[in-house]
Specification:
It is a single chain. By secondary structure, the chain is an alpha/beta fold. The chain is built from 16 helices and 13 strands. The protein has helices at 8-11, 24-30, 47-61, 72-75, 87-100, 116-119, 129-144, 157-166, 178-202, 225-238, 243-248, 253-259, 268-274, 324-336, 363-381, 424-435; strands spanning 2-5, 65-69, 104-110, 150-155, 208-213, 217-220, 280-284, 288-293, 301-303, 341-346, 386-392, 411-414, 419-422. The strands form 3 sheets. An 8-stranded parallel beta barrel has the order 1-2-3-4-5-7-10-11, surrounded by 6 helices. Helix 8 runs antiparallel to helix 9 and helix 10 packs across helix 14. The longest helix is centred in the middle third of the chain and has 25 residues, at 178-202. The chain is globular. The structure holds beta-D-fucopyranose. The site of beta-D-fucopyranose has 11 residues, from loops.
């Protein structure tokens, strides 16, 4: 199932329309947030008004599914309590347009834009947030599950926790001590578990749910037996805070030992909720983490930091490593025997500049996608149950604290005119979808 992905704050714009309340990203970008040149998502791609055009682009590309996120403050402007009925109007129209075009909607409940009223209470620091989030999930699923069959509870717990609560580089901009960061991460994962239960209790028959996790994709630096075994141990340990916790219903012993006095506090009952079974395991895969066996290390493996010369795409963090797309699904399956994996995000940033004739010839993005998809094919050929792939992103959009400078789209957006132009990578993806294979 070939899809594309976006998120509400990154594409919608229209922050004050139809009764939307403020989100922590409005506050952050309009305050001292320190985003790239102070840019914000006030307009973004204006998808709120241009969704028909974007659906048509997908339809022409042959895209089978669209992962979008709900803006929580459109539905619950003050975070909880009264639902804003007008908030549904946009999503009802978007879903209708997708279904008419034969595109399966995948709805993410939380892709970082929490209502400001909840951010002001401390966001995920607040011990009541898991329940508040689950109540919102229930509202969303009751409204949408007659048309939307697939829900993603939240996207990239460790990114929004580390950037938003530890380093302060994303909303809500907190720089907390580790004990509080760990506790906030725990609340978020508990929110996922409670939301899974809310989806089960409120969704119509056939409603499916899972998490989109940006797992640490440990790859053996050379695939000999010792390094493969080390990568497997490393995958479980490096993902202890989210994926391992969700799959096993427990933190690893060494994670708790390393954290010592700053380890999160939890109950056995909460761990059970966190490990509520899901219908699919969503993995967001971008960069590799290279490891090798090292018997001298406490856990028998060593993470190798990239040298300065290591190649990356046009986002400084995005190291090139197609093998991540093989090892992450492979290890997920071999550790936990999951039945269905979806690649919930994968994509590349390029320094796109239109040619004189207006084309965007992003051969680096095509190289990236072809290389990663080749490794995905390798995993599938070995029986790893990957059932779908969502390319980040359908179109250039507001790349959080990097503003509009970093472009991830397979469709170019001219932010002055909002004109969309499918890039070479978009043509490539169209061919891949048509052949259901590489080109
Ligand atoms: C992921 C985020 C997504 C986008 C891509 C490039 O970490 O989930 O919103 O920023 O990176």
């Amino acid at each position: 199932m070939w899809g594309t992905a976006t998120s509400a704050y990154q594409v919608e714009g229209a922050p004050a329309e139809d009764g939307r309340g403020p989100s922590i990203w409005d506050t952050f970008t309009h305050g001292q947030g320190g985003t790239y040149t102070g840019e914000n998502g006030d307009v973004a791609d204006d998808e709120f008004h241009r969704y028909r055009e974007d659906v048509a682009i997908m339809q022409r590309m042959g895209v089978k599914s669209y992962q979008f996120s709900l803006s929580w403050p459109r539905i619950l402007p003050s975070g909880s309590g009264a639902v804003n009925p007008k908030g549904w109007a946009y999503y009802d129209k978007l879903v209708e347009a997708l279904l008419e075009a034969g595109i399966e909607p995948f709805c993410t409940l939380f892709h970082w834009d929490m209502p400001e009223a909840l951010g002001a209470r401390g966001g995920w620091r607040d011990k009541d947030m898991p329940k508040i989030f689950a109540d919102y999930a229930a509202v969303a699923v009751r409204h949408l599950s007659d048309r939307v069959k697939n829900f993603i509870t939240m996207s990239e717990v460790m990114t929004f926790i580390d950037e938003g609560y530890r380093y302060g580089s994303d909303a809500p901009g907190f720089k907390l001590p580790m004990a509080e960061v760990n506790q906030a991460a725990f609340h978020a994962v508990l929110g996922h578990g409670m939301a899974v239960q809310a989806v089960r209790a409120n969704g119509r028959k056939g409603t499916r749910v899972g998490l989109a996790d940006n797992c640490v994709s440990t790859c053996p630096v050379m695939a000999n037996e010792a390094n493969i075994a080390a990568a497997k141990v490393a995958f479980r340990e490096e993902n202890a805070r989210v994926l391992t916790l969700v799959q096993e219903g427990a933190y690893t012993e060494s994670y708790l030992r390393f954290q010592g006095p700053v380890a999160p506090k939890f109950t056995a009952e909460e761990l059970k909720i966190i490990s509520s079974p899901t219908d699919f395991t969503g993995l967001n895969i971008y960069e590799p983490t290279w490891v090798r066996a090292n018997p001298e290390m406490d856990r028998g493996y060593e993470v190798i930091d990239p040298p300065k010369s290591y190649p990356h795409l046009a986002a400084g963090w995005l190291y090139f490593g197609p093998e991540a797309m093989y090892w992450a699904p492979k290890l997920t399956e071999s550790l936990w025997g999951v039945k269905e994996i979806l690649i919930t995000e994968n994509g590349a940033a390029s320094a796109d500049v239109p040619t004189k004739t207006g084309e965007i010839l992003d051969t680096d993005r095509v190289l990236f996608l072809r290389s990663y998809l080749t490794q995905l094919q390798r995993a599938i050929a070995e029986g790893v149950p990957v059932k779908g792939y969502f390319l980040w992103s359908l179109l250039d959009n507001y790349e959080w604290s990097d503003g509009y400078a970093v472009r991830f789209g397979i469709t170019y957006v001219n932010y002055k005119t909002q004109q969309r132009t499918v890039k070479l990578s978009g043509e490539f993806y169209k061919e891949v979808i048509a052949r259901n294979g590489l080109v």
